[in-house]
Amino acid sequence: MDDGSPAAPLISVVIPLYNEGSHVSELLLDLKSALQQTGCRFEVVLVDDGSPDDTWERIKGEARALPNLRAMRLSRNFGKELALCAGLERARGDAVVVMDGDGQHPPSLVPIMVEKWRTSGADIVQAVKVKRGRESATSKVGAFLFYVILNKLSGFELRGASDFKLMNRKVLDTWLAMRERNVFFRGMTAWMGFNVAQIPFDVALRRTGKSGWSYFRRAKLALIGITTFSSFPLHFVTFAGVIFFIFAVGLGIQTLYLKLAGRAFTGFATVILLELIIGSLLMISLGIIGEYLARIYEEVKGRPRYIVSESIDPEQ
Questions:
Q1: Predicted confidence band at 180 (pLDDT cuts at 50, 70, 90)?
Q2: Is 5 part of any domain?
Q3: What is the b/e burial string over 106-126, where b = at least 16 CB atoms within 10 angstroms of the residue's CB?
Q4: Number of CB atoms found within 10 A of residue 185's CB
Q5: pLDDT in tens, 51-103
Q6: Tens of pLDDT along 202-237?
Q7: CB-CB contact of 90 with 83 (8 Å)
Q8: Any idea what the CATH number is for the domain that residue 87 is in?
Q9: 308 in Cβ contact with 56 (< 8 Å)
């Protein structure tokens, strides 16, 4: 699978997989054809994220015919972001292409990305979504709200961005130096601030099967993205507390005045309304603080980000 001259740069392609056994052979065939067009040496690094189907067996079958295929199987499903970490830590290329294994990131775009990298001097070549492909209205609205909120809170514009990107060795080494366990790959690459070139693309349909990204998983990733890139929600709690303190002082002065003037009234409805508002604010505030405490708790435990149960490395 190595068709470039020894002097040509080495391109690593990292692909996390989950339940992709039905089309992994087709994916590798298309990817090999695309990589041969680059004129570079290349390797493919596959990470099976604890798939319950036959993904790992299919990978082992492909490894017999593709000598530069390297792969690992995680002991359980750790999630796409951590599976991606496993692959990036084992990539040896002068440049690394990250892509999904479901077919929505077209392999035909890889030669264009490599050419852009070699001619433009960009550190990162990012594929930007022109069309998001077939997805439900709730998914589109959720994605729109997430990117708007993240942009307002962190200052990073990620709308249309994807995990389909090429990074040179300098960028990859910088990314690997960030050892946090709450990983948001798309946001972390934007945070580094290297020179970025963009290539537009339309998201293709999945080759087979259904997406493993449930609404719960998307919501969890959104929370990680927001809490790891902005402390504004914590400042919001403080700000809301100050506003309610000012309001309480004003209401207290009014109540004291009415009492002294002999015009006091019961105000039962007002008391109930205030109790509901303040109680809701307290619960929301505790929830926001809890999210940040959860991030800290996961970091300080110091557990490995993933565990590899099996691996395939031609050089071993």
A1: confident
A2: no
A3: bbebbbbbbebbeeeebbbbb
A4: 18
A5: 998 899 999 988 888 888 999 999 999 888 899 999 999 999 999 999 988 87
A6: 776 665 655 555 555 666 666 666 666 666 677 677
A7: no
A8: 3.90.550.10
A9: no
Assess contact for 57 and 26: CB atoms under 8 A: no
Instruction: Classify residue 2: in a domain, yes or no.
Output: no
| CA-based torsion, 158, 161, 163, 166: positive or negative | negative
- Domain span including residue 206: 10-229+303-312
pLDDT tens for each residue of 40-53: 999 999 999 999 98
Q: Record the pTM.
A: 0.72
What are the C-alpha distances in Å from 309 to residues 46, 49, 53, 64, 137?
Answer: 14, 11, 16, 19, 39
Nearest to 47 by CA among 89, 9, 11: 89
Supply 4's token pair. Answer: 């470039």
Residue type, 22: S
Please name the residue ranges forming H helices in 157-267.
Answer: 169-176, 185-192, 215-229, 232-260
Whether the Cβ atoms of residue 42 and residue 75 lie closer than 8 Å to each other: no
Q: Is the residue at 54 inside a domain?
A: yes
* Structural domain total, the chain: 1
Of 140, 147, 118, the residue nearest 39 (C-alpha): 118
CA 168 to chain centre: 19
